[in-house]
Description:
Layout: E1 2-3, E2 9-10, E3 16-17, E4 21-30, E5 34-38, E6 50-57, E7 77-84, E8 89-97, E9 105-109, E10 116-124, E11 132-135, E12 139-142, E13 146-148, E14 152-153, E15 158-165, E16 174-175, E17 180-188, E18 195-203, E19 230-231, E20 234-237, E21 244-252
Antiparallel strand pairs: 1-15, 2-3, 4-10, 5-9, 6-8, 6-10, 7-8, 11-21, 12-21, 13-20, 14-19, 15-21, 16-20, 17-18
Amino acid sequence: MLVLKNNVHIRSAGISYDRPTYIQHTKNNTANSTITLTKPTTETINNNDLLIIIVMNDNSSATAQWDNSTFKPTGFTFIKTGGDGTSDSHFGIFYRIVDGSEGATVAVSAQSNSDYVGFYIHIAGANDTTPIVNQGTVTVSIGTPTTAVGVTGNADDLGIVMSAYDGADGSPFSTSSGSWVWKDNITNGAAATGVLGGFGLLEYASVNASNCQVDAPEGTINRPNRFCEYTSTSTVGLPRESRTSLAWTLSII
């Protein structure tokens, strides 16, 4: 899980966000080693907003498919990659703070030529210096729901869970965890040999709090529970076929 930090951002439409807030995303798929993702533009993207790229493929080796040097989108910062020969699937995740120099599209190359899917996500209100707070442990499951390890955040944080599956058949991913909202799925390739990828979101304020501390008003915004701790795991429902998948969570402030 990823946690993002918060900043108050005033958008061109006059809407302000004092916590990380999902705005929009695009997605794409390919059977090559390079995928092209289009920056979402349905809603205005402002300087200091956060862009996140999540990519997945079905390579069956233990070789990392993305890194912080060669196999990454230009201008983005590497967060994490996961996957191995057991999961027969891999994921990579990167972020960038908007400065206006982003292109309309971005190419993301992987180590191997495999079935390949990706998401380009726009978030407003995240911290524009250090948005990533906590990361969970990658979990791998075979033929059963995958429980993504939760991480602690506070009421202003946003969680992201992602999952990749070795196969393009079966039902799409979903989550049975009440606080999580599954956003989207995408597949590529043949039913038994392709890849399925997806992601979901969590607003930490919807989770029961623990270890609360008193918080004085901050500016004109009173956040009495801002320093409470919130932790939520996410049970990601697998497609019907008994093959492997992996899941991972992070939180954003």
